[in-house]
Amino acid sequence: MDKKDFKKKMWIGIGIIAGSMIVFGMALYFFADNIQEQANAIAGSRDDIANQSAAINSYSNLKASAAEAATYQTAMDKLLATQDSLIAFPSEINSIASNDGVSMTFSFDGDPVPASSNTVGYVGFKLGMTGSLDGITSFLRDIESSTPILLSKIDSFDITRSGSSYTLAAAGRVFFK
């Protein structure tokens, strides 16, 4: 009987061990799946926190730059005239031409391109003048860099010599807000 008892106890022991291993394996499978889901959730939360931190940092940088941008906006507003004040532009550049000793003709060219919230408006102009080469180059330098009221740009010009004087034909834009 001892032998029979031993076999019976051995099979019971093997069954308990095998059953325990099966139960442990199933528990490990379910818990591992749950742990993986939690690890993915934690990783997603970390990504969210990093994105929110970057957004807060960007927002604070923008807030800090807002005062500086307002300063530049004020400066740009001083440089840009209103569209209605463009009426003074011909007399202004005629005054510059007289100071530089050249005679000038001026006309606006085409329809104005209106300003929007993101861009400035402009209107084209054509300019003709006659005078000395020094007077014409002085005028071009003055109108491009030191027009006191209006911001303008010469897009193209052609200078020809006729006798002792020179003739300038130019096209450009004057900008407004």
Give a nutshell description of this structure.
With 177 residues, the protein is α+β, with helices and mostly antiparallel strands. The protein has three helices and four strands, in the order ααββαββ. Strand 3 and strand 4 form a beta hairpin.
Strand order of the largest sheet: 1-2-4-3
The portion of residues forming beta strands comes to 25-35%
Query: How would you classify the helix and strand content by structural class?
Result: alpha+beta
Query: Helical stretch count?
Result: 3
For the largest beta-sheet, the strand count, sense and barrel status come to: 4 strands, antiparallel
Briefly note the CATH topology name of the largest domain: Alpha-Beta Plaits
Point out poorly predicted stretches.
none
Q: Looking at this structure, what is the CATH superfamily of the largest domain? A: Ribosomal protein S6/Translation elongation factor EF1B
What this model shows, in words?
The protein has 177 residues and is an alpha+beta fold. It folds into 2 domains: 1-79; 83-176, Alpha-Beta Plaits. 58% of the residues lie in helices and 25% in strands. The protein has helices at 2-79, 89-99, 133-145; strands at 103-113, 121-131, 152-162, 165-176. It has a 4-stranded antiparallel beta sheet with strand order 1-2-4-3, with helices on one face. β3 and β4 (165-176) form a beta hairpin. α2 (89-99) crosses α3 (133-145). The longest helix is centred in the first third of the chain and has 78 residues, at 2-79. The protein is rod-shaped, with a radius of gyration of 41 Å. The mean pLDDT is 83.
